[in-house]
Design brief:
heterodimer, A: 259 residues, ten-stranded mixed sheet, 34% helix, B: 368 residues, MetI-like fold, 2 domains, flat
Chain lengths: 259, 368
């Protein structure tokens, strides 16, 4: 169910502005990879190029290759909609659909695409997805209530359940805990640890302790100054990044000397 | 040395220099009395009394507050008075219209009035009514049906066009040249005088169906010219406030753009869109001029919008006043016109209430 991602010579532009320059990175299947770095260094932008969500932003474009198990996401004839059904995404702010119940939110990927599903299959999928997101016990008695009535942390787990219900190979998370309290954050981090048994997880975070706790490998992005493009500075095992990085800037950043 | 603690009931230091809550009412009562006394010298009338009392109240309220509370509070009270004044002035015509229509129209209103048309109601019948020999005959069933059908067809034409235009502007146009041009022309359309819309529809159908063609559908086209910009504007605003995050969430699940629009964006905005559409209907249901030049006027029921002239409530009112059924005794016609006006106002009010109800029914639920 999980696939590897290989990125070669990737440049991201907003119009004529080069936002992220020359990224080369290989993400192994069934691992958690964390992107860290100061604000504006292009982590989120780069993350979005991994499932072509940057195309929602007007003027954003990409040069280079992103291979998902050998298939180029940017090859000619590739439909971004297909890409996104293979590579799911969880956003910074929890965004359950306000018009749908908890159950319908989980089934959103299927119902919105008008796929037929029997009631029994739907029930199974709702239960397995919510269990996969560690939310089942909290909501099993109120599946027909609106998703917006849940707490922020529960909403975020609902969004994760919604993402895994479409059975992607890779899950991208863009600062999934930055709007949550420490308890909810812990719940999400536990969940990320379980998710890597089945999925390739890529997470952007501003919290270095979080990166150290949840990830197997860490990529440090940095920016030389305003108006300059963001670059991938160092990509290593998390233990090495946080104990013995080879680049001075990485060491300065993870030890809190700047940023 | 002895320390004496002064125990004395006093006002809190925090409420110093503050007028008590009853002060404005006392000032108002004073203003009413003084202005009544002043007017008694010159000759009393109610309107003069109200205006003079209001002016006196604003001035006195400011002066009292300035003396006790200081300049800032006085300015606050002055501004509050002005705003209340503006509100009351804005309310006067509304209350006056409702009162006049109710007072004049209620006498002519009955179940018969709603269920009968004007067939066979001639000058002789009205003369008998005026002489007190028979009750008020005739009614507005044909005009009600006409108004309903014409408005229905206007909605059938303008809601899809307006909604699709709004979707293009918000979801696809993205501030490009075409969408800016559309926005500009929609703004221009908002300002089109309704008679011009009527003449446009009449001219259009003169080309299609031959000169002089009048039917309900022509009126519906004229009304939709007036209705489309209102639908576009209100739907556009409603679609704009749907958070982008919901669109992104849907895209990230591998859902196509048009499905995202149909199944996520529109359901999220539907309460606002539906109430906007209802307001747009209320806006055109009372149009008179475009219907007179496009749908004509008849005294009998016609439920086919595609052929023959068709009555409508505004046109009914217009012709009853302008062309009384009995030229020698216009009172029964005038009464019918007032009663029809009452029905029209009630319809518009019901539509506005319906808009609120729709907004509440469709609003996203937030229960736990």
């Amino acid at each position: 169910m999980s696939k590897r991602i290989d990125v070669t010579d990737l440049n991201v532009y907003y119009g004529n502005f080069l936002a992220v320059e020359d990224v080369n990175i290989s993400i192994e299947p069934k691992t958690v990879t964390a992107f860290i770095g100061p604000s504006g260094c292009g982590k989120s932008t780069f993350l979005r190029t991994l499932n072509r969500m940057h195309e929602v932003i007007p003027g954003a474009r990409v040069e280079g290759k992103v291979m998902l198990d050998g298939d180029n996401l940017y090859g000619s004839g590739v439909d971004p909609v297909t890409v996104r059904s293979h590579i799911g995404m969880v956003f910074q702010r929890p965004n359950p659909f306000p018009t749908m119940s908890i159950r319908d939110n989980v089934l959103a990927g299927i119902k919105l695409n008008n796929k037929r599903i029997s009631k029994a299959d739907a029930d199974d999928l709702v239960e397995s997805s919510l269990q996969g997101a560690n939310l089942w016990n909290e909501v099993k008695d109120r599946l027909d209530k609106p998703g917006s009535g849940l707490s922020g942390g529960q909403q975020q787990r609902l969004c994760i359940a919604r993402t895994i219900a479409v059975k992607p190979e890779v899950i991208l998370m863009d600062e999934p805990c930055s709007a949550l309290d420490p308890i909810s954050t812990l719940a999400i981090e536990d969940l990320i640890n379980e998710l890597k048994n089945d999925y390739t997880v890529v997470i952007v975070t501003h919290n270095m302790q979080q990166a150290a706790r949840v990830s197997d490998k860490t990529a440090f992005f940095n920016i030389a100054g305003t108006g300059k493009p963001g670059k991938l500075i160092e990509y290593e095992d998390t233990a090495i990044i946080f104990s013995n990085p080879s680049v001075k800037a990485t060491e300065d950043y993870v030890s809190g000397r700047f940023g | 040395m002895t320390v004496t603690t002064e125990v004395r009931s006093r006002r809190s230091a925090l409420t110093r220099n503050k007028l008590p809550n009853w002060a404005p009412w006392a000032v108002a009562a004073g203003a009413l009395v003084v202005s009544a006394a002043l007017l008694a010298l010159a000759g009393f009338n109610v309107w003069g009394w109200a205006v003079l009392a209001a002016v006196l109240f604003v001035a006195a309220n400011w002066a009292v507050s300035f003396a006790v509370e200081g300049a800032r509070k006085a300015a606050d009270r002055f501004a509050t008075s002005l705003m209340f004044g503006a509100f009351i002035v804005a309310l006067v015509p509304l209350v006056s219209v409702i009162w006049t229509v109710l007072a004049n129209g209620i006498a002519g209103f009955s179940l018969d009035f709603l269920t009968s048309d004007m067939q066979g109601v001639r000058g002789r019948v009205d003369n008998a009514t005026a002489a007190g020999e028979s009750p008020l005959m005739g009614g507005i069933a044909h005009a009600l049906a006409g108004t309903f059908l014409i408005t229905l067809w206007a909605s059938i034409i303008s809601i899809p066009i307006g909604l699709l235009t709004a979707i293009y502007l918000v979801e696809y146009g993205r501030g490009g040249r075409l969408s800016r041009a559309i926005t500009f022309f929609v703004d221009v359309m908002t300002g089109i005088p309704s008679i011009v819309a009527g003449l446009f529809a009449a001219g259009l159908f003169a080309v299609i169906a031959g000169p002089g063609f009048k039917a309900g559908i022509v009126g519906a086209v004229a009304l939709s010219v007036l209705m489309i910009p209102v639908v576009v504007r209100s739907s556009e605003e409603m679609l704009k406030i749907v958070p982008n995050e919901l669109r992104e969430a849907s895209y990230a699940l591998g859902v196509r753009k048009w499905r995202t629009i149909v199944k996520v964006v529109i359901p999220t905005a539907i309460s606002g869109i539906a109430s906007g559409v209802t307001i747009a209907i209320a806006r055109v249901i009372g149009e008179t001029a475009p219907l007179i030049v496009t749908a004509g006027f008849v005294t009998r029921m016609n439920t086919n919008v595609f052929s023959d002239w068709m009555a409508s409530l505004p046109a009914f009112i217009y012709y009853q006043i302008l062309n009384p059924t009995s030229p020698t005794n216009p009172e029964p016609s005038t009464l019918r016109a007032w009663a029809a006006a009452l029905v029209l106002i009630v319809l518009v009010m019901l539509l506005n209430l319906g808009a609120r109800l729709i907004a509440r029914i469709f609003a996203p639920k937030t229960g736990r």
